[in-house]
Amino acid sequence: MNTTLRALIIDDEDLARRLTKEYLRSHSDIQVVAECENGIEAVDAITEHQPDLIFLDIQMPKLNGFEVLEATGRKDGVIFTTAYDQYALKAFDQHAIDYLLKPYSQQRFDEALSKARKLLGQTNPAVQALLAQTNALPERLTVRDRGQTHVIPVAQIDYIEAQDDYVQIYFAGKSLLKTQSLSDLEKQLDPAVFVRIHRSTIIRLQALKCLERASKDSYQAVMHNGINLPISRSGYDRIKGML
């Protein structure tokens, strides 16, 4: 690839950022457009600069590397740089170009860049089998709204409703709209904690106060926040089996 690649360096350690820049000195086709030291800065920088290539640490303050990708919807041009090897499977499921385990050499770094030049602009196939092997469920959800990144602790969610191609997440007396289908979000949530009570509604069980008969043949979920939500027949069967 002969064109200049615009790169973003994301790492909470100053030494790690400086080392990446040092390794890039011999690559004249890479231009560093910004550096970030935490996940919130990273989301803003990705949104602003739309870089071709991202060097991304995983364990960082405020948002980790995977949460940054979720918040920005980024699916390509990512080279992970981390001291933790246990995230490799999940990283490649996120279409990572490469996974550099700290400390890595200039030669190993150059190999990752070689892969990047070959793969950028192509569609990297998803490795669904890897995702099935990763058991980590998110403890927080990230939502990008009006130029700001919001972090929602999963334990604070009351319920989630489908809104066309979006989901409305209700939590702690507030709500935010997230660009994601209800079915996709359901796959990310712990099935022992969240239950789909209707084709358009998922609730967190601990936010449920009780089930109440709405009519002769139907029930509703009475939530601790005072909201009543309709329950479908299949949803009733699911929730009864969990109570």
Automatic annotation (TrEMBL):
Keyword line: Phosphoprotein
One matching Pfam family is: LytTR
Q: What species is this protein from?
A: Undibacterium seohonense
Location of the HTH LytTR-type domain: 141-243
Q: Does the keyword Protein biosynthesis apply?
A: no
UniProt keyword Phosphoprotein present:
yes
**Where in the sequence is 4-aspartylphosphate found?**
57
Q: Which InterPro entries match?
A: CheY-like_superfamily, LytR-like, LytTR_DNA-bd_dom, Sig_transdc_resp-reg_receiver
Q: Where is the Response regulatory domain?
A: 6-117
Name this polypeptide is given:
Response regulator transcription factor
